[in-house]
Design brief:
It contains 22 helices and 21 strands. By secondary structure, the chain is α/β, with parallel strands linked by helices. Among the domains are: 278 residues, TIM Barrel, CATH 3.20.20.10; 79 residues, Methane Monooxygenase Hydroxylase, Chain G, domain 1 (Up-down Bundle); 48 residues, no CATH class. 45% of the residues are buried. The structure holds pyridoxal-5'-phosphate. It comes from Desulforhopalus singaporensis.
Amino acid sequence: MNWTLEKAADLYNIDKWGAEYFSIDAKGDVVVSPKGSEAGPSISLLEVIKEVEARGHSMPVLLRIENILGSQIRLLNETFRSVITQYDYKGEYKGVFPVKVNQQEHVVEAVAEFGAEFNHGLEAGSKSELIAAISMLGNRDAFIICNGYKDEEFIDLGLYAVRMGYQIFFVVEVPGEIDLLIERAKYHDVMPSIGLRIKLATQAEGKWSESGGESSVFGLTMSHVVEVIDRLLEEEMLDSLKLLHYHIGSQIPDISDIRAGAMEACRLYEELVKEGAPMGYLDLGGGLAVDYDGSNTNSQSSRNYTMVEYCSDIVESISTVLDKHDIPHPTIITESGRAIVAYSSVLLFNILDVSAFEPSELPKRIPETQNDLLENLMLTYTMVSEKNIQETCNDTLFYRTQARQLFKHGQISIRQRAIAESLVQHIFIKIREISKTMPHIPRDAQEIIKLVYDIYYGNFSLFQSLPDVWAIDQLMPTMPIHRLGEEPTRPAIISDITCDCDGKIDKFPDIAQPKKSILLHPLKEDEEYYLGVFLVGAYQETLGDLHNLFGDTNVVSIHVNDDGSYNFSKEIEGDSVEDVLSYVEYDLKAVRSRLKALAEDSIKKGYIKPRERKTILRAFEEGLRGYTYFEKE
Ligand SMILES: *Cc1c(COP(=O)(O)O)cnc(C)c1O
């Protein structure tokens, strides 16, 4: 069988999860096409890496492709617009980007810039996010939605923004908030636009199903809603009640949950109109999912709908419910975060080393051992065949346990144990080879085959750069970004460089079930091997932590021009060792003087010579200023 680029695309499924933004070019490199692979220019990630390294930035690098973010905002807005026309819906669509999904200045700035054309606004869930949003948006036709628990200062900041002409919605999340809002509005003499966040009974499938449903910690119950309406009536402020909001969770894989949520919310919207509130805005929160595994199904890492289906189902559900009662169509707001930013970032890193699943050569003569352990293993090895594969699986696993036991009780030596180990590995490999041609592979053999993999050590920290992979088993598409014209032959898992055994990627998205290993290429002498983890733009950056004191990676943003050239629009140096030490409260001045004192003391006690002190202190100084990740000489 000849290897082809099509086979590579199939193996990594890039044409599915890549959403036309990522594909493989004729050279076998992964290319990025911010306008889709048909329409616009494509640039090779390997070329970008070379340019980045030439500028002095080491791997790992988080690469942001600005225009992909722009393309996603455009896709969301244009799809809603065309669906609205198609259904003759009378309201408009206005999206907001929830700052919490990626708060980085450059990302929020890009949202404001690319969103300007569509008056795409921002959603803030805290004072910090609100200040960021107010300072970055600069568009008075776009909305700012204030969610989250609000103290007096939060409310005041929002009210000042209203005074400056911004369109702010204050969403009441807990009943107690309304009194404070009324009081501050009166104090500032500003008429606020008020929204209510409600708890829906609808509960979506998926990882975040807890954020919706009646058990959700967020939002008002029906009796709370009635209380708030009564309070507003008392104050003659019901005129400011304009928006209804709900959020049933992120990454909702099933379109029927999205429909059910919209229908349920509309019933309540109808009631609020009947109560006399002016309303006019329905905010459906986030949930628009990303197809991480490319399966287009209702699995947790996917979604069983397209953007067109998402938008049409929302528009159709709203008009179906409200038309029955002649209620004017509201402006539709959604707070899509993940779907807007996930595609625009790729984590790029090099492989530092491989621990291959390669058993050592067997000795010519098998030494005698207790219970004939090695003889039996050798016999099993020679006997593996299609016919007795089940039996050999059982035997091998039995002898493997026996070897461990005998060693523990001092009945075999370390050398004998090593031979046993490599015999077991030889058998595993033989089982794998033989089963390749078998139409039906017994379950035990399948399990054994899964144990045959190499460990590729990647220059990154899972905890810093892919926290969701660690914490909630999020699947992210992962693959080599070059050499795709060569057949990858090594089944592998990827380990990071923290010394934590959880710091590994050993689940890879696949159509049916996640795979336990992926095929990679053997390393070449004198050539770096680069991998990319894709669709990492949502949630990963600020959730990451300083495990083992690996800090922020270098971040590079590129803007792809129509003629196929690209500019480095931002380069942000990652954390130095000095930076991460200061994050954990080290006083760097004191660290330096302690190192100096230690070196001086070492001279006095005769450990080192005075001129070594200079070399040593210089090395520590460079260490403090250096990148926290593995750097090439
Ligand atoms: C997190 C969150 C969002 C974003 O959801 P996505 O699924 O990422 O689009 C939107 N609204 C609220 C209230 C949220 O908490």
